[in-house]
Design brief:
Helix content: over 70%
Structural class: mainly alpha
Shape: elongated
Radius of gyration: 19 Å
Number of helices: 5
Largest sheet: none
Length: about 130
């Protein structure tokens, strides 16, 4: 809860200052946005580390292979990073770059999920 409050305060303050700076010095507004996003991302990583440890513990107790769980966690991480990068590109006024980031993220998520898809394919073949 503490990380949420700190991250929210940083985000709101950076947004207000960014709006003021955007009128006169748009370059500094973008740098401020990047800095705030990096700080907030550090809070998110601190929380997500504990979440990952818990999910791995549940998977271990439930006899779920980490080979099956790992692609799911990777896809979630890819989606979070891509959303952040895409939003920063959109905020800077580069919609085409934002779309490219989203495309690369989708391809990366599919690539990360290949081991899981191969496992599903093998399971399907064994039924036939």
């Amino acid at each position: 809860m503490d990380f949420l409050i700190k991250g929210s305060v940083i985000g709101v303050i950076a947004s207000v200052i960014g709006l003021i700076l955007k009128k006169n010095v748009p370059e500094f507004a973008l740098l401020l946005t990047l800095s705030a996003a990096t700080a907030i991302l550090c809070f998110a990583f601190a929380v997500l580390g504990d979440v990952k440890a818990f999910v791995m513990e549940v998977a271990e107790k439930g006899a779920i292979s980490s080979a099956l769980l790992s692609p799911v966690l990777k896809c979630a991480g890819i989606s979070v990073c891509a959303k952040l990068a895409s939003d920063i590109c959109k905020d800077a006024g580069y919609a085409a770059s934002a779309s490219a980031v989203e495309l690369v993220a989708a391809a990366s998520a599919l690539y990360a999920a290949l081991p899981l898809m191969r496992t599903v394919l093998k399971m399907t073949e064994s039924f036939l």
